[in-house]
UniProtKB/TrEMBL annotation, chain A:
Pfam families: BPD_transp_1. Gene3D superfamilies: MetI-like (1.10.3720.10). Part of the ABC transporter complex CysAWTP (TC 3.A.1.6.1) involved in sulfate/thiosulfate import. Probably responsible for the translocation of the substrate across the membrane. Keywords: Membrane, Sulfate transport, Transmembrane, Transmembrane helix, Transport. This is Sulfate ABC transporter permease subunit CysW. It is a multi-pass membrane protein. The chain crosses the membrane at residues 28-54, 74-101, 113-137, 152-173, 215-240, 260-280. The gene is cysW. CDD domains: TM_PBP2 (cd06261).
From TrEMBL, chain B:
This is Sulfate transport system permease protein CysT. It comes from Sporolactobacillus shoreae. Keywords: Membrane, Sulfate transport, Transmembrane, Transmembrane helix, Transport. SUPFAM superfamilies: MetI-like. Its main location: membrane.
Amino acid sequence: MAELSLSRESGGFVQARRHTGNTLTEPVWVQTLLTLIVITFISLFLILPLIFIFTEAFQSGISAYFASISSPEALSSIYLTLTVLVIVVPINTAFGVLLAWTMTKYRFKGKSLIVTLADLPFSISPVIGGLIFVLLFGDHSILGRWLLSQNIQLVFNTTGIVIATLFVTYPFVARELIPLMENQGSLEEEASLILGAGTLRTFFKITLPNIKWGLLYGVILCSARSIGDFGAVSVISGHIVGQTNTMPLQVEAFYDGYQMTAAFALSSLMSVVAIVSLILKSYFDWKNTRPA
Amino acid sequence: MVSQNHSEKKTKVKRRQIIPGFGLSLGLSLSYLSLLVLIPLSMIFIYTSQIGWGGFLREISQPIVVSAYQLSFTTALVASLINLVFGVLTAWVLVRYSFPGRKLIDGLLDLPFALPTSVAGITLATLYATNGWIGHLLPFKVSYTQVGIVVALILIGMPFVVRIVEPVLQNLEKENEEASAILGANRFQTLVHVVFPKIRLAAFSGFALAFSRALGEYGSVVFIAGNMPFKTEIAPLVVMQKLEAFDYDGATSVALVLLVASFLILFLINFSQWVVKRKFAD
C-alpha cells in the first residue's frame, strides 16, 4: 500500500499503475458477453427444462394432475421408491461414514486403491450395475444356482431393486466426506482419546459434529440417486407394472403409453424433490463455510 | 546394520495407529465393499472368461456392437468437450464476476445430479422434438438423432468441470495475475500463461469424469435417441437389448469393454492427481 501511494508522485509509476488496472480484469463488454453466454447456456439446459416439466404436468388442469399422481400405478411406484429409499440410505450412510473414517483417520498402504475401487459405482454405466446382479443371482453363477435351488429369488423383485440401488448409491456419502475429513485431520480425535474418551464417544462427540453438514449433503445426494436411478433398476425390475416399477420406471411406462400428463406429473414430483435437495445443499454449504 | 535397524524401528513407530479400531473399521469397510461392489463386478470378468477369448471377440466385433461403441464414444467425447469449454467459462464467470442471479445459477448447476435421468430424458425429448418448444425453432432435427444424444449428455455431464474448477479458481492467488500484469502482459496473455496452467489439471479431471459418465449414461439418452440400430443406438442400450433377448454372452461381453473403459479413466484421473500431489510434496 505504501509503495502504491508513493508511486502516485512519480509520473512513470502512475502510468504503470493505470496500465495494471486495465489488465487486471477483462473489459466490461467481455465480462458482459461471457456472463450472457453462461446465462443462456444454463437457461437452455437447466431452467427451461425445469419450467417445461411443470407446464406439461399441469397442461390438462389441476384435477387431471392430481388424478394422475393418485392413479394406482403412480401410487404403487411412489410406495416402492420410498421403500427402497428408507432401506438403502441408512445402510449406505453408515458404511459411507465408516469408509471415510477408515480412509482418513488411519495410516496404511493401499488407501488410494481402495478409494478408487469404492468410486467405481459412480463412474460405471448403471446398466452394468444391474447386469452384475442378474449374473450373480441368476442361474449363471454357483451362488445363483444354489439360491435358486433354495427357492431364493434375489433379482426381478424388490430385493433386487434394493441391492442394485445399494450398489449405485454406494460412493456418495464417502465421496463427500473424505476430502472434508482429510482437511480436518485427526488432532481433535487424538486429543479426545488422550483425555480418556472411548473411540465411539470420540466419534459421536468430536467427529460427527465436525462433519455433519458434509454428511447431510452426502445423504441428500445418496437419496437423490436412490430415487432417480433408472439404468440399474431397469435391468433388475423385469418390468412388471404395479409390482416392481419405481417412480422413474413408471415415468417411462407412462411416456411409452403416450400418457404425457401422467408422465410429467410424476416427473414433477421428483423435480420438486430435486429442487428441495438443491436448496438444502446451498443451506448446508452456507452453514459449512460460515465461521462458527 | 545399525542404520537398518534404526529405520525398521522408525517404520514400526510410524505404523502404530493412535486411534483404536483400525482392524475393525478396515475389516467392515472392505467386507462391505467386496460384497456389494467387487464380487458382483468380478462376475463380468468370470462370465466372460467362461465364454473365452474367441467368443468375446466375436460378440464385440458384431457390426451393430462396433457401431454402438463408435457412437457412444463420439457423442460422449463431443458432449464432454462442450462441457469442458462451458464448464471452465461458467466457473470463471461464477467466481470472478458478480451479476444478478449468480447465486441461483450456482445452486441450479447441481440439478443434473439431483434430477432423475428418465425425467431429464423425457423432458429433453419433448422440448427438442420437431414440434417442441426448442425443436420447432431449430432448422434441423435434434430429438431422435445423434445431436439429441449429445444434448442429453451435455445436460447430465454439466456439473463435473464447473464443480472441480470452481474451488481451484477461488483459491487462486490474485498476486500472480497482478505480477503478470505489472510485468507487461495483457489480460489475454495473463489468462493463457498464468491462470490457465493452474486450472488445467482440474479441468482435465472434470472432463474425464464427465466423459466417463457420458459413456455409460442410459436413462436420459434412450428417450431422446430414437434407438435406431447403426444410427442412434448407444452401447449401454445394446447391453440392455441383449439382456432382454436373454443373450447373456453378448450383454456381458459388450459390458466388459465399457467397464474396462471406466476403470482406465478412473485410474487415469487418480494417477494424474497422484502425480500432482508428489510434485507439490517435493
